């Protein structure tokens, strides 16, 4: 199984054909992506399965903050 999305899959998510527009739209969605040397966008399939898992976990809570 391929680990990257095909260009049609990226278009289905972003609705853009240009790489810089795709990257901007993916960033807004919280999906990590990168631009290849041939000016295409690379998105790992695992990031599209659970994009909320890519968000940073909340920091530790302090005992004093509960008062």
Automatic annotation (TrEMBL):
InterPro entries per record: DUF4224
Record protein name field: DUF4224 domain-containing protein
DUF4224 domain mapped to chain residues: 10-47
Domain of life: Bacteria
């Amino acid at each position: 199984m391929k680990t990257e999305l095909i260009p049609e899959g990226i278009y289905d998510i972003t609705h853009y054909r240009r790489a810089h527009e795709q990257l901007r739209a993916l960033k807004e969605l919280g999906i990590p992506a990168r631009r290849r040397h041939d000016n295409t966008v690379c998105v790992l399939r695992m990031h599209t399965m659970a994009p909320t898992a890519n968000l940073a976990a909340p920091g530790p809570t302090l005992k004093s903050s509960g008062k």
